[in-house]
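FORM 12-B: Structure-to-Sequence Request
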């Protein structure tokens, strides 16, 4: 059993208590609130306890200002399992989805998830995101690793796009054609990486 402070806290598999802090040290996919609960559930969990590095995937977890990568089993990023597509990243050419684990409305603090959830027409995120994102995670729809650097690259690009929405002569169709595509994002990414000294 491993203790993880920077993790997505699921309910305990044995007693359903919220925010279980321990997970199975073998498969890394089941959470418990105590060693006692893990022992109680072992008979049920043992047949499905399979650790396979090929079945793990990196996602990005955001908690307020904290951003970190997390390895989870690929089955956890099934698009039908509570994940919401990020429309603007899909238009950019990198389909990303988000899942919300612990929504709350406390302010103030910087909400990094807002820019991923903006509507590409209005440039605004829904009120459910503006009032506090809580603990959220991002994954690529194709179930490949989602590096933290790519998260920041997309975030930074979307952030710069917000300037276009403030222009009184904003033309969405022109904006969509020129900015909401992979080529424009990639050009921006390459330039930013050069400035940061990152080798692609």
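FORM 12-B RESPONSE
SEQUENCE OUT:
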């Amino acid at each position: 059993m491993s203790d993880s402070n920077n993790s997505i806290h699921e309910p305990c598999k044995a007693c359903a208590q919220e925010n279980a802090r321990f997970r199975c040290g073998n498969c890394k996919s089941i959470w418990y609130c105590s060693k006692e609960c893990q022992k109680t559930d072992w008979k049920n969990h043992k047949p499905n306890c399979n650790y396979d590095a090929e079945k793990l995937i990196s996602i990005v977890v955001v908690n307020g200002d904290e951003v970190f990568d997390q390895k989870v089993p690929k089955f956890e990023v099934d698009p039908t399992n509570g994940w919401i597509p990020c429309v603007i990243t899909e238009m950019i050419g990198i389909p990303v989805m988000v899942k919300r684990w612990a929504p709350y409305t406390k302010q103030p603090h910087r909400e990094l998830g807002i820019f991923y959830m903006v509507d590409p027409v209005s440039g605004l995120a829904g009120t459910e995101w503006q009032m506090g994102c809580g603990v959220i995670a991002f994954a690529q729809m194709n179930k490949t690793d989602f590096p933290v650097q790519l998260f920041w690259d997309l975030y930074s690009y979307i952030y710069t796009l917000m300037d276009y929405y403030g222009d009184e002569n904003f033309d969405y169709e022109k904006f969509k054609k020129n900015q909401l595509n992979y080529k424009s994002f990639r050009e921006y990414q390459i330039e930013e990486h050069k400035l940061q000294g990152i080798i692609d």
